[in-house]
Design goal:
alpha/beta, globular, disordered N terminus
């Protein structure tokens, strides 16, 4: 009996075969396939669509970029497998999923590693020491590191107000199946409850869970605010994602295409910062308009400090999972955060 994974991969091959069989255009067209972990209209989709537009413009159509939204080619695990075998050339890969392959990248899941200052955070994520270490870690696993960027602050949506760790006591709080996230919310006093993303809305509606965490654009897109009463910004973490490629893909490019590729990635690194801020600002306005009685809360510096103190021991859990190189990446991040 074929598994769902077999069926997903079979569908992927069928989709790709149909593309390969497209009618000729009168000239040879090179295809670059870019799979993302989010749906159309998301930050990742905006990044991929802008990449597509720039590549096709600068190659005058000699390169065609096909963007696959989440689900088109299967799950995040399927996308990573297809990236490894060269079925797709580019993919977004968030630490929550990639951490199974590269444990060190889970440093970006830790709370209170980034500051409250978004511009400082963006400089740190783009710094040469951080990028150099990411390139090393990815290369060892047969991937090429391309870029690293934030999709905006993570926010809590809950039924009850949360200002202190004590407010989390006994709360069934949905998290991804990451030991670090489970450890973090356990440290706050919550009862971490892993649940598939597609079941979060119904879980909140049916009171299987009392709260969840996601970037604002996802909270609006999935309507999580409809079934909760508080949207809280603790500024404890940003949703960080990466872009990866197959090493063969980059190595096979002409020097001209490599220069073009690198220039586009650098341009997007700057552009995506403004895109995600606009997306999250606009989505928050939509939430306010659709649910005016929703309580939107920014934690004070003193309140954040109480959570930060609870979160600090989770760094030791991370080091146990990721080893000495994980500890080194954490030091590199801390140093980058302190840079002027």
């Amino acid at each position: 009996m074929r598994t769902l994974r077999d069926l997903a991969l079979g569908l992927c091959l069928l989709v790709l075969a149909c593309e390969q069989g497209a009618p000729p255009t009168g000239r040879e067209v090179e295809l670059w396939r870019f799979a993302i972990e989010e749906t159309p209209g998301s930050v990742q989709d905006a990044y991929a669509q802008r990449f597509k537009a720039l590549v096709e413009e600068r190659t005058q159509g000699r390169v065609r970029v096909i963007v696959y939204p989440y689900g088109t080619l299967g799950t995040s695990d399927h996308i990573l497998e297809q990236l490894h075998n060269g079925t797709v050339q580019l993919a977004t890969a968030s630490p929550g999923h990639l951490g199974k392959l590269i444990p060190e990248v889970q440093a970006f899941l830790l709370h209170f590693v980034l500051s409250e200052d978004e511009e400082r955070n963006e400089r740190a994520l783009a710094s040469a020491p951080v990028r150099d270490m990411m390139q090393q870690l990815y290369a060892e696993k047969g991937l090429r590191f391309v870029s690293l960027f934030s999709e905006g602050w993570m926010a809590w949506t809950t039924r009850e107000a949360v200002h202190t760790p004590e407010d989390f006591e006994g709360m069934k709080f949905r998290v991804m199946t990451s030991p670090l996230l489970i450890a973090a919310y356990s440290a706050y006093g919550a009862s971490p409850t892993p649940l598939p993303y597609a079941q979060v809305y119904s879980g909140l509606q049916l009171r299987m869970i009392d709260g969840q965490v996601n970037p604002v654009f996802a909270i609006q897109e999935m309507s999580f605010y409809e079934v909760t009463d508080y949207l809280t910004f603790p500024r404890h973490a940003a949703f960080v994602t990466t872009v990866a490629a197959t090493p063969r893909f980059y190595a096979s490019m002409s020097p001209e295409h490599q220069r073009m590729f690198d220039a586009i990635i650098e341009q997007l690194r700057n552009e995506i910062v403004q895109v995600q801020r606009r997306f999250n600002r606009e989505r928050l306005d939509i939430i306010r308009e659709r649910k005016p009685d929703l309580h939107i809360v920014e934690l004070s510096a003193e309140e954040r400090q109480r959570f930060a103190e609870r979160a600090r021991p989770v760094r030791e859990t991370y080091v146990q999972l990721a080893g000495e190189r994980g500890a080194r990446l954490l030091r590199v991040l801390d140093d980058a955060m302190q840079a002027p």
